[in-house]
Amino acid sequence: MKPAPTRPTLREFVVYFLKLGTLGFGGPIALAGYMQRDLVDERGWIAPDDYKQGLALAQLAPGPLAAQLAIYLGWVRGRVLGATLVGIAFVAPSFLMVLILSALYLKFGGLAWMQALFYGIGAAVIAIIAWSAARLARTTLGRDRLLWGLFAVSLIVTAWTAREIIWVFVASGLIPLLARARPAMPTKTLLVAAWPAWLTSGLTGAASVGGLWKLFAYFAAAGLFVFGSGLAIVPFLHGGVVEQFRWLTERQFLDAVAVSMITPGPVVITVAFIGYLVAGPLGATVAAIGVFAPVYFVTVLAAPHFRRFAESPRIKAFVDGVTAAATGAIAGAVLVLGRRALVDLPTVLICAATLAVIVKMKRVPEPALIAASGVVGLLLKHAL
Questions:
Q1: β-pairing verdict for 205-206 and 227-228
Q2: How far is 107 from 105, CA to CA, in rounded Å?
């Protein structure tokens, strides 16, 4: 029996999300499950109906599911102030961890031992993304042939072009909407000399203000095309970061994805690692603000009115199509990244072993698998 909702202090609420952001591993579905268990079932801080509404909004609106749900629950508890504090508390721990890992990577990335670690980690990441895409497809597409068709088209386009095409997402949302819902017809350059050089120094030296604005704009756009799992951002980022702007190499991009998986909190925090490599600590901050700003504003602006349109068949049809395309893009990214990460027999075996462990032993935490794969890669490189 669920306890009657109680009203915690805003401080208690924010401290809870600070802890969850520090210790919460397992991806968006696991994080959403922790919130339901802790806030609804055990503590009674959130009413079941409020939680369900928040989960529905997180699934319907663009943005990573776990972060959006956390911000919505913060809005339920303390309106705009609650949403703001909870969002910061949830994201800050993983952001700080990524800053530290980014600094270490930038300083020691050329060393053989770190390259050997990511040799094994990259192979494990491919297995984890593949399994996540398979689970996401089963849970979101069901037996709907139209959605599976959109999934297949997005997979093929992503695998073929090695990037995420925005019009495929838009079309994938419109097709189910038209088929089912039957809608009725109706910068200037700024001085940066005052900044310490290390604040904006990445792989290629200090970044300009124009470069920082480009980072912000790109990651803000990316935040608008993440539906459900944070992994949906991976193929989108690959197209821009590697193919379009050439900020990172294939290997560095895969390392960025790996870093997001060995830290708690939302997967999209990988953008902070990318931002750091491009433009140092300030670049990491700009990238993180860019990707989470749309999540925050969409949630805060939609929350007061969400109940009125949450059940609209038109909105549900559009989101179903976009989710199918996003899931297909994740699957396509597995093929794109796999071609770069699985370079020899040892990496193929590491990937296969990781996938076998995930399937057979579902309770093994992903950070433990990634750490073990890194050690195996280190040992194999040393032996070879």
A1: unpaired
A2: 5
Determine the distance from the C-alpha atom of residue 254 to the mean position of all C-alpha atoms in its chain, rounded to a whole number: 14
* 121-167 per-position pLDDT tens digit: 888 878 887 887 787 788 778 888 898 998 899 889 878 876 666 67
Report the alpha-carbon distance of residue 301 to residue 298 in Å, rounded. Answer: 5
The per-residue pLDDT of the chain, averaged, comes to: 81
AA identity, residue 73? L
| Pair of tokens at residue 296 | 């925050």
Token pair of 69 as six digits: 């749900």
Helix (H) or strand (E) holding 201: strand 201-202
Contact yes or no for 235/133 (Cβ under 8 A): no
- For residues 259 and 279, give the distance between their C-alpha atoms in angstroms, rounded to a whole number: 17
Question: Which neighbouring-strand residues pair with 201?
Answer: 206
Q: Where are the domains of the chain?
A: 10-383
Mean pLDDT value of segment 224-236? 69
Give the residue among 356, 326, 344 at the shortest CA–CA distance from 381.
Answer: 344
What distance in Å separates the CA atoms of residue 183 and residue 177, rounded to the nearest whole number? Answer: 8
List of residues 6+ apart from 347 with CB closer than 8 A: 119, 120, 122, 123, 341
Q: Provide the H-helix boundaries in the chain.
A: 10-23, 27-35, 48-60, 65-108, 112-141, 145-161, 166-176, 209-223, 233-237, 250-261, 270-302, 306-309, 313-341, 345-360, 366-383
pLDDT top residue among 301 and 324:
301
Q: Where are the alpha helices (DSSP H) in 63-186?
A: 65-108, 112-141, 145-161, 166-176
Structure tokens at 169: 């997402």
112 close to 98: Cβ distance less than 8 angstroms: no
3: left (phi over 0), alpha (psi -120 to 50) or beta: beta
